[in-house]
Amino acid sequence: MRLWKTILAAATLSLAAATSAFATRTDLTLGIVLEPPHLDPTAGAAAAIGEVTYANVFEGLTRIDDNGQVQPALAESWAVSDDGKAYTFKLHSGVKFHDGSAFSADDVKFSLDRARTKDSLNPQKQLFAHITDVTAVDPTTVKVTLDGPQGSFLYDMGQVAAVIVAKGSADGNKDKPIGTGPFKLDHWAKGSEITLVKNPDYWGTAAALDKATFRIVPDAAAAVPALLSGDIQAFANMPAQDALGQIQSDPRFSMVIGSTEGETILSINNKKPPFDKLAVRQ
Predict the structure, then answer these.
(1) What is the pLDDT of residues 131-140, one digit of tens each?
(2) In the predicted structure, residue 23 carries a pLDDT above the cut 70
(3) CA 20 to 30 Å from 76, out of 106, 142, 184, 244?
(4) How far apart are CA 214 and CA 189, in angstroms?
């Protein structure tokens, strides 16, 4: 994915069937390699959480477009003070969470305050470190005060960990995510698939799909047959390996190879024998 774009758009760019039959579908099954540990992007660093939920189930004040530019999301506009320390966001009105509760400035204040507390589980607490105050001016206006000018602040508010959650449902978002996005959770068969369905009450442009299923396929050997048979219509971060040439030569599919922000870290536990001995580590 480029930046933090919804995977329901990104995946079809990565590898998507190009037949006319595919174009008329209102459902989509996408392959993903890693199953998320849970579905709350404000409480876990695993990239798989955001791949399923970001811009699909949860939304932030802003979003980042394909060109890396900040665009409105739950905030329709904003104004910055002359000293660069205060941001006043004007929120969209008429927005509802998936459980029917109304979205308001109080939810923004709750989410930002929750993310920056000392005991916060947010995986990107540094995004909120410069916030000194969040004030709900009225139901559709929020003022955020920083300790100094931060040129990346609007960009930061478009990151996965900065999505807005409701106070009443925040504690249950790991298993039953309640957001404001164009899709809502239908079911999660752990170890198998996660299915999202269209949110009929979405405040923005309605989703083109009625249903999207994230099929968990950790085995590269199983991923290719599933794609070629049509069981899966798209695969983001496709583990094609030696089958890449076969897929590229198949006229039913198109492929885009892009960059990633992903990192792989290999480390050892220095407290566990024999790695607790310096000579062994050396």
Answers:
(1) 999 999 999 9
(2) no
(3) 184
(4) 10
Provide mean pLDDT across the span 117-122: 95
Smallest CA-to-CA distance from 216 within 90, 30, 21 is with 30
Could you tell me how many residues make up the chain?
A: 282
pTM for this predicted structure: 0.84
Contact call for residues 146 and 86 (beta carbons, < 8 A): yes
d(CA 252, CA 101): 43
Alpha helices in the chain (DSSP H): 7-14, 20-23, 47-53, 105-116, 153-156, 220-229, 244-248, 278-281
List pLDDT tens digits, range 216-272.
999 888 988 999 898 999 998 888 778 888 888 888 888 888 777 677 788 889 999
CATH of 62-158, one of 3.90.76.10, 2.40.30.60, 3.30.9.10, 1.10.238.10: 3.90.76.10
261 phi, psi to nearest 5 deg:
-95, 5
Say what the pLDDT of residue 6 is: 53
DSSP assigned state of 279: H
Here the contacts of 127-136 (C-beta below 8 Å, separation 24 or greater) are 127/156, 127/157, 127/159, 127/161, 127/162, 128/162, 134/108, 134/109, 135/109, 136/104, 136/105, 136/106, 136/108, 136/109
Burial code (b: 16+ CB inside 10 Å, e: under 16) for 179-196 equals bbbbbbbeebeeeebbbb
Beta strand pairing status for 62-64 and 70-72? Answer: antiparallel
> What per-residue confidence (pLDDT) applies to 19?
42
Share of the chain above pLDDT 90, in %: 73
What whole-number distance in Å separates Cα of residue 10 and Cα of residue 112?
28
Can you tell me which residue has the tokens 């995946």? 11
d(CA 160, CA 123): 10
The first and second tokens of residue 68, run together, are: 């890396």
